[in-house]
Each structure stands twice: as C-alpha cells, then as structure tokens.
Amino acid sequence: MQKRTFLLATLAAAVGLSLQGTAQAASYPNRPIELVVPAVATGASDLSARVFAKYAEKRLGKPVVVVRINGAGGYNGSRTVREDKSNGYQVLYTHQGLIANYLTKVAPYSYDGFKVGPAVVEDATLGLYASGKSGIKSINDLLARARAEPGKLKAATEYGTLSHFMFLKLQKEQGVTFKLMDTGGDAARLAAMLGGTVDVMAKVYSGTQDYLTSGDFALLGEPADKRAPNAPQVPTYKEQGVDFTFPPYVWSLFFNQNTPQAIVDTWTEVAREVTSDPAYRKEIEALDMAWTYKSPEENAAAHAGMQQAFAELVGGTSAVAKQ
Description:
- There is one protein chain.
- The protein is an alpha/beta fold.
- The protein has two domains: 188 residues, Bordetella uptake gene, domain 1 (D-Maltodextrin-Binding Protein, domain 2, 3-Layer(aba) Sandwich); 121 residues, D-Maltodextrin-Binding Protein, domain 2 (3-Layer(aba) Sandwich).
- It is built from eleven helices and twelve strands.
- Strands 2-1-3-10-4-11 form a six-stranded mixed beta sheet, sandwiched between helices. A six-stranded mixed beta sheet has the order 9-5-8-6-7-12, with helices on both faces.
- It is globular.
- It comes from Azotobacter beijerinckii.
- This is Tripartite-type tricarboxylate transporter, receptor component TctC.
- InterPro entries: BUG (IPR005064), Bug_dom1 (IPR042100).
- Belongs to the UPF0065 (bug) family.
C-alpha cells in the first residue's frame, strides 16, 4: 500500500511539473528576455548576439536584451545562466568554449550542463596572426621559427578557451613549443600584439582588417578544410602544405536544465526562422561571419565529438604564464 501511494504521489508530481511547464510555455514570453553573452563588448560574440537578438525579438514579441558577463574565459557568464531560476528568461549565447572551460577545470561543467539549443552563427576563421615586426609571413615561417627557437615565441591566448586549445593542438601535431601567455580576451590579445609583448595570437578574422592593411599584423592562413565563406581570400594551411585544421566557432543557445522543454522548442523554431531570414544572413555576413542552423540534436552531437577530441589534448597541457 505504501509503495502504491508513493508511486501515485511521484506520478502526480511529475504530471504537475509537466502541466506547469506547459502553462509557462503557453504564456512565454511575458516579459523581456536576457541573452547572456560571456564576452566583452564589440567582440564576435557580442556583435553577432546583437544581430540575432534583434531578429529574435521580432518573432517573440518581447525585448531580447544582450547582457555581457565577462571573465574567467566565459565561465562567469555561463555560470549565471546555469544558476538561473527564471525558466527561460535568461538564455546563454556562446560557443564551444564551454568544452574548453571544462577540460581545463576553469568550470566544473561542460556543454551538457545545459539543455543544448540550436546553433545560429559559425566562424571557421580562427587563424594565427603574427606581429608585423616579427618577419613571419606564413604558417611555414611560424613553424620554422618555432622549431629553431623552441619555447621562445610568445603566443597570446586565454587559459581555458578555444584559442588556448588551438595552440595545444598545433604544438602536439606539428612538434613545436610556444611560450603561451595568458593575456586575456580578444581586446587584450590585440593590445599585446600591438604593444610587441607577444609574437603571435589566434583570433577570428572579424575585426582584424585594419591591422592587416596597416601591416601591424600578418595573417598566416585559416585552419579549415576549405576557405571560409566569410574570408574567401584567405588561404588555408593545407593550401600552404601544412596539414593543420581546427573546428569552427559555432555560436549556439543554451538553457538552464530546469527550463521547460516547450520553451526550448519555442527558441528552436525562432532560431530556424531567424536563420532563414535573408536580412539576418546579410547582417551576419557584414560582420565577416557566417550564418548557420543546426538543430539541438545535431548541435549536441557535434559538441560531444569535439569534447572527445579535445580531451586528448589536455594531458599535454603546457604551462601558461600570466602576461
């Protein structure tokens, strides 16, 4: 009798939660939504999030406000959404940095600490840049210098991020060693390069054109199998005879685990509509980025594969010095 009573109570509770979630989704949204970006202003994450938010709020009927919460390689922002109790009124907008944070123990959770939503933007241009004063003009120049002077070339990165993992992968596969410098995010890496305190950095193409034109930086190529649609003039490393690739950034939506599935489904449909909108695509391309759409299922599978591949790099993690 007690067992039956317990089972009935458990079933009733589950039904109650399901009905509550359905009711919440039916009235969702009834107030502004925060799109949390764990990055600084004017970077690729912030700029693309603002474009996506503009088109999303047209479909949701309520403001979608971009809120930047920077620090700890993205962990501060992701933690805010992970601990959120608003049931869908805080949505995380980020990329596979969640995986890098987890594998380097910056964060105690990975992408699967959230409900994975759809992907809406991608960028395969996380290229290597050398200082214009270094005399390094190509990926082959960089590797030759690194082999001749092991551990002497200073590489700007941010511990526990994708740029960090790019250098780990490059070191492992090409048999070279850099002096990895934890300079911080995009803005800090740009400043370190311009100030001459580092020799090389990893960054997406967006926001670098002026430095390339002035000769402050030399772009050594892109790490994709084929030229990126948002930087078709930039050769890949493979075209230069170096077999080195790195996965593209993929910006996606992530939700607190307690978010009703119906609300995640609402955002999935919104994302599908937004990424099909020619005006949205045009604005994303104007940022020198690429639009995309991946369903939550496709997106979660891609993250799982990337995490498995990146886990093999962690054992060989090199020391990263503070600038």
